[in-house]
Design a protein that fits this description.
Elements lengths: L4 H7 L3 H23 L1 H9 L12 H17 L1 H51 L2 H5 L3 H18 L4 H21 L1 H22 L2 H24 L1 H6 L3 H53 L6 H42 L20 E11 L2 E12 L3 E6 L5 H6 L9 E6 L2 E2 L5 H5 L2 E4 L10 H5 L8 H10 L3 H5 L18 H15 L3 E5 L7 H15 L3 E5 L11 E6 L2 E6 L1 H7 L2 H9 L3
Parallel strand pairs: 3-8, 3-9, 6-7, 7-8
Antiparallel strand pairs: 1-2, 1-4, 4-5, 9-10
Amino acid sequence: MKQYSRIFQYLKAYKSKIFLYFLFVLLSIIFSIISIGMLMPFLQLIFLDGKGITTSSSNAVIQYVNNFLYTSVTTNGKIYTLGIICLLMVSSIILKNLFLYLSYYVLNPLKNQIVNHLREELYDKVLRLPIGFFNEKRKGDLMSRMTNDVSEVEGSVVGTLEGWIRDPMTIIVTLTVLLLISVQLTLFILILIPVLGLVIGRVTKSLKKHSEEVATKYGETLSTLDETLGGLRVIKAFNIEKLLRGKFFKSNEELLTAKNKISFRRDLASPLSEVMGVILFTAVLYYGGRLVLRGELLEASAFLGFLGIFYNIIGPAKALSTSFSNMRKGAAAINRIEDILNTPITVDDNPTGKKIDSFEHSIEFRNVSFAYADAIILDNINLIVKKGQTVALGGSSGAGKSTLADLVPRFHDVTSGEVLIDGINIKDYSLFSARSLMSIVTQEPILFNDTISNNIAIGQQEATEEQIIEAAKIANAHEFIIKKEGGYHSNIGDRGAKLSGGERQRLTIARAVLKNPPILILDEATSSLDTESERLVQDAINNMMQNRTSIVIAHRLSTIRHADEIIVLQKGKIVERGNHEELLAQGGFYKKLVDMQEVR
């Protein structure tokens, strides 16, 4: 039950509702037993024709029934007594179903709330996880855990929550009543019931393993689908439709096989439990019938009443076995969700961190090293970026440029050393206030399926329309925006699909301008654009960089020749530093890169 501990934690917040649910279920069970128990006086009245009813019996329950019958028949007559019995049966059934409905009325919103909590906690954790976590995970697998696995938990675990409470309560209360009627027969039942549980347990034992296989294959198909939708141009250009089709069909076929295995096992549990229940009922019928015929046990009417009440256990026992198999199936989904929820937050906010409202003099990397999965990415970096400076990070691919820049907004935390803003370790600031000083423009424009206005204002929700328009003008975006049919209220589609590359990039620059931060981090925003778009975007960047401190990740060295200082990285180390002319004069690694790009 350890894997369900998170579900139980959610339930702690709803103790009063759980108590109400217990109460309504208990009352429902009691009135259900009463309605069936009325068979005993009914059978006695019919078969004995009101005669031979004695008020003495060794069993307290039967004696109470006999007293009721004797008093009613002698006082009011047989017809009146029959009417009372029927009225009690109908009243009990009505009350049973009323309390059953009330139990659902209390529990169903509670179940929905639990799933809601789980989904929110999972999404919140994804937002808090460091960037490095997602480098090792398939997007499709993460989406599968957040959608398919949560749905599996909802259907298989939370969906059978009432079965965890109602069915065991029904069995316990019913067995208690049966003990009051006949200890001997009830003990006989208790000996046979574990056999039923053992058989069902054997059938459902492998459900968890097959469920994990289904979840993995589902994640693979989602990953392939995501890659297909994101790379349709390449797929069609290189004629690899057959390759992708084969990959997807293979994963889908394996998913089908795994799901069939689960279905065979899960579907076997219900009919098997019913068969075992009938066998158990028949065994009790035979054993008890023999004792009644020999005169060693109950009267015939009491025995039939006992059987009626006992049959009340068959349904809950069958439902409990189904719930158990569903829980086994859902356990795999819970484990996959727990993998994310239990992932340590390596970059988390400092709850007692200082608030920083302004940037005064410098960003410093002091003896900074960073390693990821035993690979050294940055090695003993020492660098100071003064306020108002533009510092460019150059070097070959994989040199550590992006990682170094990512340390400033704490997308990663250093393995050793310190990153300081105005002389204070960035970890000592609150994460929110530190990031509030920065804007980032990435190489690939990241936009959301919303209006142009909302995309520009996404970091400044309180911005006025005039401020949004002014930011768009600085980013050279205003002219193309007003030509759109809806202007600033035009929807740009998924990831800005309705815009050109240059238009998308200028919107991200407008977003950064509107935030108006003192620190800019620019991942070469023009490297994938055509000449005209590049000029417009570069002009927008130049406008944005005025009077700001900028860290520029350089892919095209021609765009950083005017930087105050160029830091050349190679294999995670600073190998050269200086301005454009100084580095060319050194004739080292930077000059080699420049010559290769033919920018002189």
